């Protein structure tokens, strides 16, 4: 391993913010293990990212940086703690260590009041959106602490404007994302002066499959209808959120920990 080689694990990497983060980190010189479940979830009513889509993200990232294997795919469900341990072990074995972990995997369900949401859908939302972040932290933080000091580890999570806004018919999603922000703050306090920090981004309405499914759940014609609620009057691109995550993964964010950074087009105003 060389001193300037930086290694990241990114979940939810087949599409959306996760995929954009893989591309952004690769272009900044990171080695990236791109992790995704790669298949549908029978509890959820819309398609998940596929193994083929994950392969396309990996191929595009390597093509952009003219490298054969700077980015590698890894199939794992974030609800499976052992699978994420294996992903982290793969990154360490392949590239010599771990410097950043980005928890971007997410799903959504709802469309009816909380008490009418099927229990299996509610559980999937909680287990992926919050449990998956916990599982990644349990696997990745010890790996980052294995780097010799002075270390510069970064644990990052994708929260949501839903962490602070009560969105009707999306109660479990709001609860999970609020949990993510609490987790990041507590983790930052626990990590203290170890050289590993913990931060989150809080996206607004971003042009992803989750937003498209949200539109369907609300009976809207499509995701663009959400644009009017943001002062920018447009949807965010996944790459706009990914660029902030890439900044937080880098050395310029050294003074930040426990932060929840809004990347929301002004939605929180």
Low-confidence stretches: none
Could you give the distance between the termini? Answer: 45 Å
CATH superfamily: NAD(P)-binding Rossmann-like Domain
The largest sheet, given as strand count, sense and whether it forms a barrel, is: 7 strands, parallel
Which outline best applies? globular
CATH topology: Rossmann fold
Element-by-element helix/strand order: EHEHEHEHEHEHHE
Helix percent band: 40-55%
Q: Indicate how many domains the architecture comprises.
A: 1
Q: What would you report as the Rg, rounded to the nearest angstrom?
A: 17 Å
Strand residues, percent: 5-15%
Number of helices: 7
Structural class, by secondary structure, is alpha/beta
Strand segment tally: 7
* Order of adjacent strands in the largest pleated sheet: 3-2-1-4-5-6-7
Query: Mean of residue pLDDT?
Result: 97
Please give the CATH class.
Alpha Beta
Summarize the structure.
By secondary structure, the protein is α/β, with parallel strands linked by helices. The chain has helices at about 15-25, 50-65, 80-95, 120-145, 170-190, 210-215, 240-250, and strands spanning about 5-10, 30-35, 70-75, 100-105, 155-160, 195-205, 260-265. Helix 3 (about 80-95) runs parallel beside helix 4 (about 120-145).
């Amino acid at each position: 391993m060389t001193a300037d080689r930086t290694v990241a694990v990114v979940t939810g990497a087949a599409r959306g913010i996760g995929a954009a983060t893989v591309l952004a980190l690769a272009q900044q010189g990171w080695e990236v293990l791109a992790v995704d479940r790669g298949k549908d979830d029978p509890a959820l009513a819309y398609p998940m990212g596929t193994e083929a889509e994950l392969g396309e993200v990996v191929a595009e990232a390597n093509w952009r940086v003219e490298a054969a294997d700077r980015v590698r795919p890894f199939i794992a469900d974030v609800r499976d703690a052992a699978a994420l341990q294996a992903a982290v072990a793969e990154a360490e074995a392949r590239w010599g260590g771990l410097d950043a972990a980005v928890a971007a995997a997410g799903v959504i369900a709802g469309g009816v009041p909380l008490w009418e949401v099927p229990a299996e859908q509610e559980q999937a939302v909680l287990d992926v959106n919050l449990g998956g972040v916990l599982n990644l932290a349990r696997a990745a933080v010890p790996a980052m602490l294995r780097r010799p000091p002075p270390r510069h580890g970064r644990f990052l999570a994708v929260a949501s404007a839903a962490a602070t806004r009560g969105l009707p018919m999306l109660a479990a999603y709001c609860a999970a994302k609020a949990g993510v922000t609490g987790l990041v703050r507590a983790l930052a306090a626990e990590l203290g002066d170890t050289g590993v920090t913990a931060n989150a981004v809080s996206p607004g309405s971003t042009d992803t499959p989750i937003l498209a499914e949200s539109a369907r759940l609300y009976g809207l014609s499509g995701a663009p209808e959400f644009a009017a609620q943001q002062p920018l009057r447009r949807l965010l691109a996944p790459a706009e959120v990914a660029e902030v995550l890439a900044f937080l993964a880098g050395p310029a964010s050294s003074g930040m920990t426990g932060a929840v950074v809004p990347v929301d087009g002004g939605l929180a105003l």
